[in-house]
């Protein structure tokens, strides 16, 4: 995290809970360096020399790394847009990186474009104000809008456009003045947030609307724009239901949406800020409070369930639409091989549209949208981490995928058809899979792996010999394994032995055998009876067990048991071969 602590403290603390010591806060660009990537000479790898680290309890340490640690996921807040023009020394650092990143300079330029996200809102089924937009030499492409209430006027210059702007504004105001009394004029682009440049105007005041638009355009750099949109006044129905005098009040709702695992959008937090209804409301001029409290104060509690469900579903639809949109961008347009939008914040107002009290989306914010959520959690410590947990899970998952790229992994056993989903995923991660199994194993697995080595290890009594033999075969094929694993239960002890022979990290041999053999598992659990203070008394979770090797063992052991009891295989899963034993006609069977 290249940032001051302000923007990302919530992410750092939740990151420390999920993976202590590896979520690194970089306070200076001098703490990191770039080197040519070993995987691609056209890209660069980032390395950390110094960082603030966090443990599970949130304690911080200033650590120096020698050798430096390789970055596996990068978040950059030292940009012109994120710091309101105060610094941008992080911008050259994020260019041409080989690792996953949260957004990029290019993506932020796109996702912070209120005109683009207004179209995506419409496609996602979200309610939004009727919009007139003026864009100034925008470089990225807009989806073809099929919505009559979103009109985009593309300007190639900002001088001499007064007549064109006035004509379009007059048409717009004539359309909306039968529905609303006021309109909002606001700028669009990465430098415009916190209600910067936002003004309210009455629909009959064409002159001031045009003047506000031209004033914004006058000082606006290219690749930005100006929106005119309907102003939705706050609900002013039965005020006897409210706990405040809401005559002059309104509120803004922020929904926080994370890209979870498998690109699943997850709405985690709904936070509100109450302010003057005739002034812009944002996170800088309000204190965060819960959605439930705000609706209660505004006399809208009766609508809470419906409003909440609509906000959550449409918010997730918007992120889903953004994910789909980004798939159509080139690497250059996205700003890097690992750039994608992993989190957004969506702002809503609650107003009456077509006679129905509805959440109306007004803008989308990119990766620097978490401050209000973390403030809300600091005020409510019991919620700590909840708004950012899926984001951190995605950061960790993408980091692990990056680390796996180009690695050679030996896999013992292809398993059955239920394991087929593994092989295309491994291939998409860039993993070189060396599959070892019998010749007649799953054809799909053989075809999707980088190398297939036939070997019959079906008799697991000889696992020690199998491990030695497989090690020699790998050596003869010049396979240098970075790891060894299995997805098939029968092969777990053999995999542990092979890891031991190859000197790789993995499950210990004894632990694998104890877990695989049911009687040994029970005996290990029965040994812990509280001899170590505070250690779980695992005997409480174990059952009495004996091993039946021959038929004559049955009458010898049965008096030790009360009926009913279970007869099961020493090895195996899915309850294969399990039988319930009980008394029958006075005899035990």
Automatic annotation (TrEMBL):
Residues 426-504 form the BL00235/CARNS1 N-terminal domain. It comes from Pinctada imbricata (Atlantic pearl-oyster). It comes from the Eukaryota. GO terms for molecular function: ATP hydrolysis activity; carnosine synthase activity. GO terms for biological process: carnosine biosynthetic process. This is BL00235/CARNS1 N-terminal domain-containing protein.
